[in-house]
What we know:
This protein is an alpha/beta fold. The chain has four domains: about 1-55, Phosphorylase Kinase, domain 1; about 65-135 and about 355-470 and about 475-595, 3-Layer(aba) Sandwich (Rossmann fold); about 155-330 and about 615-625, Dimethylsulfoxide Reductase, domain 2 (3-Layer(aba) Sandwich), CATH 3.40.228; about 645-765, Barwin-like endoglucanases. Helices cover about 30% and strands about 15% of the residues. The chain contains 26 helices and 28 strands. Strands 5-4-17-16-15-6-7 form a seven-stranded mixed sheet, covered by helices on one side. Strand 1 (about 1-5) and strand 2 form a beta hairpin. The longest helix is centred in the N-terminal third of the chain and has 19 residues, at about 75-95. The radius of gyration is 25 Å and the shape is globular. The model is unreliable at about 770-785 (pLDDT under 50). The protein binds ligand MGD (2 copies), iron/sulfur cluster (SF4) and molybdenum atom. Iron/sulfur cluster binds near residues 13, 15 and 45.
Amino acid sequence: MTTAPRICPLCEATCGLTLTIEGTRVTGARGDRDDVFSRGFVCPKGASFGELDADPDRLRAPLVRVDGELREATWQEAFDLIAARMRPLTEEHGPHSVGVVLGNPNVHTMAGALYPPLLVGALGTRNLFTASTLDQMPKHVACGLLFGDPNAIPVPDLDHTGHLLLLGANPLDSNGSLCTAPDFPGRLKALRRRGGTLTVVDPRRTRTARIADRYVPIRPGADALLLAAVAHVLFAEGLTDLGALAGQVQGVSEVRDAVRDFAPEAVAAGCDMDAEEIRTIARELAAAPTAAVYGRVGSCTVEHGTVTSWLVDVLNILTGNLDRPGGVLFPLSATDRAPAAPSATGAAVPGRGFALGRWTSRVSGHPEAKGELPLAAIAEEIETPGEGRIRAVIALAANPVLSAPDGDRLDRALDGLDFMVSVDPYLNETSRHADVVLPPPPPAQSAHFDFAFNALAVRNQVRYTPAAVPLEEGRMDESEIHARLILAVGGAHGAAPADVDEAAIGRVLGKAVADPSSPVRGRDPKELSALLTGGTGPERRLDLKLRLGPYGDGFGANEGAGAWADADVDGDGSGGPGLSLARLREHPHGIDLGPLRPRLPDPLKTRSGRIELLPAPIAADLPRLRAALTRTGRPGSLVLVGRRHLRSNNSWMHNVPALAGGSNRCTLQIHPDDAARLGLRDAAPVRITADGGAVEAWLEITDTVRTGVVSLPHGWGHDRPGTRTAVASARPGVNVNQLLDGSRLDPLSGTTVLNGFPVELSPVEVPPVKMPPVEPPPVELREVRP
Ligand SMILES: Nc1nc2c(c(=O)[nH]1)N[C@H]1C(S)=C(S)[C@@H](COP(=O)(O)OP(=O)(O)OC[C@H]3O[C@@H](n4cnc5c(=O)[nH]c(N)nc54)[C@H](O)[C@@H]3O)O[C@H]1N2
Ligand SMILES: Nc1nc2c(c(=O)[nH]1)N[C@H]1C(S)=C(S)[C@@H](COP(=O)(O)OP(=O)(O)OC[C@H]3O[C@@H](n4cnc5c(=O)[nH]c(N)nc54)[C@H](O)[C@@H]3O)O[C@H]1N2
Ligand code: SF4
Ligand SMILES: [Mo]
């Protein structure tokens, strides 16, 4: 029996795990006490890593459709078929005839970070759809407009803040999002122990709300009104104080004018809050020694998602909390772009800015955001005849049939494609439509590095874990799958997958040596490429990013005295030598790079070189918010919100017995008063009807949801034929997204309104056979921390 460290890929917290290995099998997982970031924290999902890794339903070999049936095939056959079908299709119908769908797990794998941009580039398609438009695109758009870079997302300084105003997030169950913090629950408790305060705004009294100092059961969708009113109070009571930001922000008085109509009294009915409580929230925010406003899924996937996300940072800025310790800060990860040398004046250099709507979707004319079109619009792009119709789909780690609106329609659309490829470990609701399914190996057989989450982490740190066990016979690493896919669709089928990596390395080095501010300016790219270490293409690309990154050795140029030489890269307590993959590998539990620090103006990429507090697209969307002032909903009407469960993860973890069952159930939660009013009984089936259709679920009466609101989780509905997920199919639940028709979007970001849409309920007389009876919960697994 041996052990191996492995960063957990199952949520954004990125905890270090210690895997127990017998032979080549993972038999256990516990929190890695030596991990520099997570220090031993683990949740029930991480603790079930072994079961998830060994799930017998995981596909072992590629599947290829022959005479309408998916059959096991060799890798060669699978890629031959892709090359044979995709090239003629794009040659005849053009690059946009291929739709690419990227799902959430891409941000949790090295392959998903390194290859999809190359795939989209090789195809040249504008039909890119990702889970972001079901999630955080409003945040990208808001930050893009404010700071000029959609990836410049400030995160709360969780470990040092004096006050956290948290909206639409439930980190005690989700473990956090766009704020990577292993043991988020423990960090919130520590905030309160050091005398700080926590305010939670959520229509459900969540586990997070229960540990808050102040809990605000807002009406769903009304956060933008609340935050606009908070800004109004800050201005009206002279509580704005930009501090060190003052010289770097333009548009403050324009924002003052823009929020003039949003007095607490004006928004109170819309929020279903007391005007005085809104004033208190504003005063507490202004009075706190340091404070952070943080909004997540429930603040993004709503009608005014982008405006809400914008207001979150407007408040951080107006209170001087952006870019200061204890407020919200821009992380600097080891694979980020190295900061430019400060200009003589300290002012930011004007950047390229951020533009929306550089192209639009073909059928409904949705503007692109960050190069993406709304995932809600993919079915119509497949179905609607005409030039530019999507005829083939490549789905990488995506299950849009369950995660996006109207899965039944998408089911039919995918069936009508000329060709579809899924890279997915499971034959599930989406991959069952594919002509070729390419299964990645289980996570224990893959190396791991968090390209995305280190740049959203509450502490700068860097960790790399190589594969814990060797690739099983017949398996292909996911990076190689992606590389071969790129070659097959790009007209180079049969070339070596390493060619894809070497071409990418060549491009980066070519640019770097020509860049006067690069540590490798003027050097020979070939010489630099030969210096890269790592046994695989992705490792070499990681080494390249680390060495050119902010803590990197600059291929020798940064040894000793670089701008970030004070970062303790070798962990010996003193400023260290520059980072490289070889140096990182000497630290199997990671390297701590210190707390987040102020970084402005470097992250700013706006055209003005300043923070643009009232960007034009936001100003143009404010009339829509003003119209919402007078909309409070009919008496007795209901809106639906989602929820997450600690032992679940979107659509794909319902197949692990240790995680399924108990309270992890697809029930419709409703407040006792609403249930009584509608004559609905606990544990009885109920029909839910909305724009897009109807579903039936078991009712769960609980006062944890406020009146006027019902809650149904997403990721369920595992009752379609042709899947191979035995455990999940036995307790299928229903697909909440069947209630949506794809028409409710936040217009600026194209993000689906998944929270706060109207529904109607009616009793179901005969229990539908598909739904399992309510069973007693098994012993609840708990989080474990040292
Ligand atoms: N109503 C409602 N809908 C929602 C949400 C909500 O809150 N409410 N949340 C939204 C959010 S935030 C998100 S991010 C999306 C997620 O939407 P998706 O990304 O579409 O769904 P996931 O369930 O995360 O899983 C995607 C697929 O990845 C596969 N997979 C797992 N591990 C790997 C791997 O290592 N490699 C590969 N190639 N595939 C893998 C799984 O088998 C699954 O098929 O759902 C959204 N949908
Ligand atoms: N256990 C578990 N962990 C996960 C996931 C999972 O499925 N399960 N998914 C992962 C993914 S992909 C993501 S993006 C993150 C998401 O992480 P979080 O953003 O923390 O997501 P949720 O737990 O869905 O919390 C959203 C909260 O918003 C509330 N809400 C709904 N509408 C509104 C509203 O209008 N206003 C306000 N203020 N609140 C509202 C909901 O009641 C809910 O409590 O979690 C990740 N971690
Ligand atoms: S909180 Fe749980 S699922 Fe998330 S990274 Fe940590 S152990 Fe994994
Ligand atoms: Mo997500």
